[in-house]
Amino acid sequence: MSVMKELSYCFLGKDEAAAKAIVKLIKSSSNIHYLNLSHNCFTSKDYPSFAEVLELPSRLYYLDLSDNEFSNLGMKVFNDAIVINMTLVELNFSRNPILSIGMGKLLKALEGNFKIAHVNLSHTGADFRNCGQILNLLKNTSTILTLDLRKNHLGVKEPGVIKIRKYVDNIEPDFNILM
After folding, report:
1. How far does the signal peptide extend, from start to end residue (predicted)?
2. Can you name the CATH fold of 6-178?
3. pLDDT of residue 100
4. What is the pTM of this model?
5. Domain spans in the chain, listed from the N-terminal domain onward
């Protein structure tokens, strides 16, 4: 019996059934630990399928949904699944146009997840309005070791960014924030 631990670089295109097919595959093999679905054309209509993946009693440790077309519309179902997932250690959601509104919702959801350690939210359209939410995430979640926020619109001299940097300088030396 072979054990599938990694499902990587599956280009599924714009087929509407692709996300549902992934869920079906993962349901049939709860041993997938690494799921890389970057560079596909998944959109907000696919959030329910990926929420279902996160809610499965699996051992999914790494989920890469970067370089897709997810937006802030319909994120609630995905965010609710992030909160209840107790196996995910790393999430790459970079290069998705979730903008400031979606970023705020995702940051709030991440506050409720006590397992996740590495989060990549670069190139997502976050801006200075998210600084307070970023600071709350850092203060309320002790498991996050890496938070990548590069290539967003946070502004180097914004008061919120300065507060984040001061806070990060005073916390655990292993913590890494990329801005």
Report:
1. none
2. 3.80.10
3. 93
4. 0.90
5. 6-178
